[in-house]
Amino acid sequence: MIRDQGFTSKIWRFAIWALATLFVLNLLAVIAAVIVNSFATRWLGTWLPAGWTTRWYFSAWKEFQLSSVVLITFEIVFTVVIISGILGVTTAYALARRNFPGKRLVILLFLLPLLIPPLTYGIPLATVLYQLGLGGTFWGVVLINIVPSLPFVVLVMIPFIEQIDPRIEAAARVFGAGTTNLFLRILLPLLLPGMLAALLLVLVRTIAMFELTFLIAGPTTQTLVVSLYYAVFASGVRAGQSIDAMAVVYMVTTLFWLVLALQFVNPTQIVARAKQQSTH
């Protein structure tokens, strides 16, 4: 009986690892095909393209006006990051340092945009923004992206703030430190790794956020991911290599910021902290 259970366990482990490996290999193959095609002069029915070229990147940059798209993308993204950072860190500090009736309910309400599909609240929110005259505008795109970004900053920052001993802040106040000095000289150096991690991850999320941005963006406020969608599905004939070149630009941009964010935060840190809290 014990041998049968051990054999079954090994079969399950093998099956899980086989499926995971197959998934990763399939994903890498798709990414590799996009990258190779973006450099191909012609690629039909062969293992490798007939030739190699970089002209599709120059063509995509001009055809899809990527200079203005990238500029507006980062204007929107950095505005979302700054506003989410200021509001999110302040909110996270209040939630981490104060105990009050209904605190768990308040935290749950803050996290709802992360727990439910974006389109669930995105469509009615976009309707309200259009009624307010913000549809297709810069600030309309910023506001709709702040909705999931602010709770994300709160979620990331609460564990970092809770790791700081409140007695450090109390001692600083005893020696006459005001709120500004307390934040700049005591809290900011301690919270800086967490803030960088949260804001970089918000940056990555905002760059990759398609649904909410698509609902509210106009012709002059499309981010890179929305422009990529229109490049694929809009009417007209476009070279597949140019679209793949645009996709590679999007992948590289997102991957750069994601790798940078992972230098400051361990993805398991938040989960481990949540488990620790649930056991108390």
Short description:
The chain is mainly α and 280 residues long. It has helices spanning 2-38, 55-63, 66-97, 103-115, 118-131, 138-162, 166-174, 179-208, 211-216, 224-233, 240-262, 267-279.
Plain-language structure description:
The chain has 280 residues and is mainly alpha-helical. The protein has 2 domains: 7-52, no CATH class; 57-278, MetI-like fold (Orthogonal Bundle). It has 12 helices and no strands. It has helices at 2-38, 55-63, 66-97, 103-115, 118-131, 138-162, 166-174, 179-208, 211-216, 224-233, 240-262, 267-279. The longest helix has 37 residues, at 2-38. The protein is globular. Its main location: membrane. This is ABC transporter membrane spanning protein. Keywords: Cell inner membrane, Cell membrane, Membrane, Transmembrane, Transmembrane helix, Transport. It comes from Rhizobium mesoamericanum STM3625. The chain crosses the membrane at residues 12-36, 69-95, 107-132, 138-161, 182-208, 214-233, 245-265.
Tags for this model:
single chain, 280 residues, mainly alpha, MetI-like fold, 2 domains, 12 helices, 79% helix, disordered C terminus, MetI-like_sf
